[in-house]
UniProtKB/TrEMBL annotation:
<keyword id="KW-1003">Cell membrane</keyword>
<feature type="domain" description="MacB-like periplasmic core">
    <location>
        <begin position="72"/>
        <end position="273"/>
    </location>
</feature>
<feature type="transmembrane region" description="Helical">
    <location>
        <begin position="7"/>
        <end position="27"/>
    </location>
</feature>
<feature type="domain" description="ABC3 transporter permease C-terminal">
    <location>
        <begin position="310"/>
        <end position="430"/>
    </location>
</feature>
<keyword id="KW-1133">Transmembrane helix</keyword>
<keyword id="KW-0812">Transmembrane</keyword>
<dbReference type="InterPro" id="IPR025857">
    <property type="entry name" value="MacB_PCD"/>
</dbReference>
<dbReference type="Pfam" id="PF12704">
    <property type="entry name" value="MacB_PCD"/>
</dbReference>
<feature type="transmembrane region" description="Helical">
    <location>
        <begin position="403"/>
        <end position="424"/>
    </location>
</feature>
<feature type="transmembrane region" description="Helical">
    <location>
        <begin position="33"/>
        <end position="55"/>
    </location>
</feature>
<feature type="transmembrane region" description="Helical">
    <location>
        <begin position="303"/>
        <end position="330"/>
    </location>
</feature>
<protein>
    <submittedName>
        <fullName>Membrane protein</fullName>
    </submittedName>
</protein>
<dbReference type="InterPro" id="IPR003838">
    <property type="entry name" value="ABC3_permease_C"/>
</dbReference>
<keyword id="KW-0472">Membrane</keyword>
<feature type="transmembrane region" description="Helical">
    <location>
        <begin position="351"/>
        <end position="378"/>
    </location>
</feature>
<dbReference type="InterPro" id="IPR050250">
    <property type="entry name" value="Macrolide_Exporter_MacB"/>
</dbReference>
<feature type="transmembrane region" description="Helical">
    <location>
        <begin position="67"/>
        <end position="90"/>
    </location>
</feature>
Length: 438
């Protein structure tokens, strides 16, 4: 074969391999299951499959004698899967925390065009106008259920490394508790109206220093007493809460930044949006609180997913080369064994299949180990990162079954690439040459 034909043949093989890996990575679980069932049926019910299975058993039986080379494949793939799943679990946990915040029965109102509370301003004279809009539910006292709120970023010391960290200090109105029914005081009590008292989220307590109930914290040159702690299972646990009428003057803030309201039934949001659009004095936008917080997670989640895939891909290249070297060495060391099998009637397809199955078995073991390590070490691990409000959001890594499945697919894909070329070499090795080399 001429050099040009070899070049184009190799190029075609690489293109086909890349296409196969792309298709493989996109396959749902039932697609992978179908392929596995088809391969198992071929191994069990065809003559060439039975020969391939026998050759595979011979190769697997020799793995203990090649434990060093085999461990390179297992450890390399375990590292790839562990890092990939951990990175994706970070993004999944951040997304889940913000997606669980708020609901479709409440809405947040911001200045028109604002993407977050930090760049929103709602003047005090606009608050009564908002309360009078249609679509806002009324409480037992007949008053609209709305909470004008202020979000102030403050510096607290991180427990992890002692550095100053941005934390969201939220001033809320009396209706804030009814608007967030998942939020429960689990220690101490609520802050008193008109007092420099605060309640803190459990997530904030875990990450930041001096937030135990009974402690005093100096903020804005004033001493605030922590009188309670709350849990909510969402991003609110990253915050400190106080009376908005006390927090505003402490930071010389004359306006609010958002107004959270309870929606009146299924059509409440449409009525509220129409009311805002119809009043020229209110150049404000409304979103359901669920959509608002879910949108805040999009950027970082995508970044972490892309970063995880990039880092995982770089590590996967290393793992593939490790698998290639190990399997080439294994094929070279078993050249006489392979030649003997071929002399006995083992054709090219069974030999290729045997080497591929052996490599993918090692890859599967590495993938399972990596996935288990990621689940044990990272699942539920609490961290914090900077959110859209330029303050820390406390969340937990979330190693979901879907991420574990993604890691295993990557492992099998690496095994597929790492075993293919050594398998082809084993099938093409001339019998006489292999016997002399052995």
């Amino acid at each position: 074969m001429s050099k040009s034909k070899r070049f184009f043949s190799g190029l075609l093989t690489i293109v086909a391999l890349v296409a196969a890996l792309v298709v493989w990575s996109m396959l749902p679980w039932f697609g992978v299951l179908a392929i596995a069932v088809a391969v198992a049926a071929w191994l069990a019910f065809t003559r060439s499959g039975a020969i391939a299975l026998a050759a595979t058993r011979i190769g697997i039986a020799g793995l203990p004698q090649r434990w060093g080379a085999s461990s390179v494949i297992v450890i390399g793939i375990a590292g790839v899967v562990g890092v990939l799943v951990a990175m994706l679990a970070m993004g999944e946990g951040f997304k889940a925390t913000l997606s669980n915040t708020g609901g479709t029965d409440t809405a947040i109102i911001l200045r028109g065009g604002s993407q977050a509370e930090t760049n929103s301003v709602i003047t005090r004279d606009q608050v009564p106008l908002i309360s009078g809009l249609p679509g806002i539910a009324r409480g037992a006292d007949g008053q609209p259920v709305s909470s004008p709120e202020l979000s102030q970023v403050v510096n607290l010391q991180s427990k992890a490394d002692g550095t100053d960290t941005n934390v969201q200090f939220r001033g809320v109105g009396p209706a804030a508790w009814a608007l967030r029914p998942k939020l429960k005081i689990v220690e101490g009590r609520k802050f008193g109206p008109g007092l420099r008292e605060m309640v803190v989220g459990r997530g904030a307590q875990k990450q930041f220093a001096n937030l135990d109930v009974g402690k005093q914290v100096k903020l804005a040159n004033q001493v605030w007493t922590v009188v309670g702690a709350f849990e909510s299972g969402d991003s609110n646990e990253s915050e400190l809460w106080a009376d908005v009428d006390v927090l505003g003057p402490a930071y010389q803030r004359q306006a609010f930044q958002s107004v959270t309201v309870k929606l009146d039934g299924k059509n409440g949001f449409k009525q509220l949006s129409a009311g805002l659009a119809a009043d020229p004095r209110l150049k404000l936008d409304a979103m359901t609180t669920h959509d608002y917080y879910a949108k805040q997670s999009e950027g970082l989640t995508k970044f972490l997913s892309v970063l995880g895939i990039v880092i995982g891909s770089i590590m996967a290249v290393g793992a593939i080369f490790g698998a290639l070297n190990s399997m080439y060495a294994a094929v070279a060391g078993r050249s006489r064994e392979i030649a003997t099998m071929r002399a006995l009637g083992f054709r090219g397809v069974p030999v290729v299949t045997a080497v591929m199955l052996e490599t993918m078995l090692l890859a599967l073991v590495g993938g399972i180990i990596g996935a288990l390590i990621a689940w044990v070490v990272f699942n539920g691990h609490t961290v914090s990162t900077l959110g859209n409000n330029f303050s820390q959001v406390v969340f937990q890594f979330r190693v979901s079954p879907q991420l574990l499945w993604t890691g295993l697919k990557w492992a099998l894909g690496i095994g597929l690439v790492g075993g293919l070329f050594p398998a082809l070499r084993a099938a093409r090795l001339p019998v006489t040459e292999a016997l002399r080399a052995g």
